[in-house]
Amino acid sequence: MNRILAVSLFLLLLLTSCIPPLSKESYLSQYEGFILKTRENRNTQGFSWEKYDKEFEKFSHGYYKRFEDKLNRSEKVLCKRLQLEYLLMRTHDELRSTVKNVFYNDIKKMQDRIENYIENDLTHDFSSLMKEVENVTGSAFDALKKALQTMGENGSSTEP
User: Fold this and answer.
1) Which residues contact 17 (CB under 8 A, 6 or more apart)?
2) CB distance 85 to 35 below 8 Å
3) 99-152: per-residue pLDDT in tens?
4) Does the pTM exceed 0.70?
5) What does the alpha-carbon distance between residue 29 and residue 51 come to, in Å, rounded to a whole number?
6) Under a CB-based contact definition with an 8 Å cutoff, are residues 75 and 24 in contact?
7) HEC string of 83-125?
């Protein structure tokens, strides 16, 4: 039963959203419905801000001018709140898209640099590192060998 009521309400909203508002009550109702529809659909695939921007322009400017003289203070505040909510959603999505693209580009550049390093410099750096390890190991090994020899000769790890 609730499902039928919800579908009926959605269809009623859909039908009334296509018809320009004839009263301030229908204007406010349709404006709220438009904001609700925007909030619900903005993350769906194929969503187009351009299409919604045209509708928003009608509600926030065209229809508002038509009913402005009939709206009381609280209704005007409601209209401004709905306008602000739309603009915040729009700005949030644009910012999210911009940040996503910036990070994607930076990560792609870093990935390209790592791949270039692996292909061109890693082998050389690994060879250099191995030589350094051998030199350190050789020096340490020689010092240990010498200390052990000295210890074996006089029973002390230091030279006399």
Assistant:
1) 30, 33, 34, 37
2) yes
3) 777 777 777 788 878 777 777 776 777 677 667 766 766 666 677 667 766 766
4) no
5) 20
6) yes
7) HHHHHHHHHHHHHHHHHHHHHHHHHHHHHHHHHHHHHHCHHHH
